[in-house]
Automatic annotation (TrEMBL):
This is Uncharacterized protein. Keywords: Membrane, Transmembrane, Transmembrane helix, Transport. It holds the Pfam family MIP. It is found in: Membrane. GO terms for cellular component: membrane. The keyword Transmembrane applies. It is a multi-pass membrane protein. One of its GO terms (molecular function) is channel activity. The chain crosses the membrane at residues 55-73, 85-108, 129-147, 167-190, 202-223, 257-277. Belongs to the MIP/aquaporin (TC 1.A.8) family. It comes from Rubus argutus. SUPFAM superfamilies: Aquaporin-like (SSF81338).
Length: 288
């Protein structure tokens, strides 16, 4: 007689239920991972358009560092006019020209400050922001490497390769100035630049003039309020401070963190403040 063993009903249900649990957990983990990647815009890592824009940021930052730094050093080395007037004017002209060229191409950031606040405001994804900041730092290094190659060694030593220092004011004062001046640039420039309606009304030229004027104003305030000849004004661009620090070293590393922390704090405070701004602007109706 052949013995037939019929398995109990639960003998095959338990493994099936266990398998479903593993599958469900696997699907949930995949779903969480997919949501995280989507939230940071990871798909942009594979976007040719994003990499073209990032390359634009690299080249623009390198050219900006070269032209801006050499112009400022020339202003400081001149003996005809007060550098306190020449330096902000040079910042205004050069920043305006570069903004006009790069805003339609990549957004015209050329600074981790503008990239970070754009990511906080949702203008760009965190993925794009990470690549932009990396490219800006590389561009700064390339720009200052070019300056170091062509600049006279004595001039490079005298002006610390045009880098950012806290010499003469101390880290505490430098941090306050970096925070306040960066906040002013964000409040005056970014408030207009990130408003689509006002940008359309004012036009690209006017918006670039406003942003460049805010940067020049911040530089002017920072070099006049302290009255210290050794202080080279606020950075307003941590990438600009990183290039000379890596290539020249020395006192450029003293308080280097100020230019990053001050900028990040200013962006964070401005973002929180921007949430309280009126959603609709006031307009004149029948003269009222």
């Amino acid at each position: 007689m052949e013995l037939i063993i019929i398995p109990h009903e639960t003998d095959h249900k338990l493994p099936k239920a266990a398998g479903n649990g593993v599958a469900n957990r696997s699907m949930e983990s995949k779903s969480l991972a997919q949501r995280f990647l989507a939230s940071i815009g990871a798909h942009e890592y594979f976007s040719p358009e994003m990499w073209r824009a990032s390359l634009t940021e690299l080249v623009a930052t390198a050219c900006l560092m070269f032209t801006l730094t050499t112009s400022i050093i020339s202003c400081l080395d001149s003996h005809g006019v007060d550098p306190k007037l020449l330096v902000p004017f040079a910042v205004f002209i050069i920043a305006f020209l570069f903004l006009m060229v790069t805003v339609p191409l990549s957004g015209g950031h050329m600074s981790p400050v503008f990239t970070f606040i754009a990511a906080l405001k949702g203008i760009i994804t965190p993925a794009r922001a990470s690549i932009y900041i990396l490219m800006q730092c590389v561009g700064s290094i390339l720009g200052f490497l070019t300056i170091k190659t062509v600049m006279d060694h004595n001039a490079a030593q005298k002006y610390n390769l045009g880098g950012c220092t806290t010499y003469g004011v101390g880290t505490q004062t430098a941090l306050v100035l970096e925070f306040v001046c960066t906040f002013v640039v964000l409040f005056v420039g970014v408030t207009v630049a990130f408003d689509k309606k006002r940008c359309k009304e004012l036009g690209l030229t006017t918006v670039c003039l406003v942003v460049a004027g805010a940067m020049a104003l911040a530089v002017f305030v920072s070099i006049t309020v302290t009255g210290k000849s050794g202080y080279a004004s606020v950075g307003l661009n941590p990438a600009r401070c990183l290039g000379p620090a890596l290539l020249q070293g020395g006192i450029l590393w003293d308080g280097h963190w100020v230019f990053w922390v001050g900028s990040i704090l200013a962006c964070s405070v401005y973002y929180c403040f921007s949430l309280t701004l009126p959603k609709e602007s006031l307009t004149l109706v029948d003269g009222e």
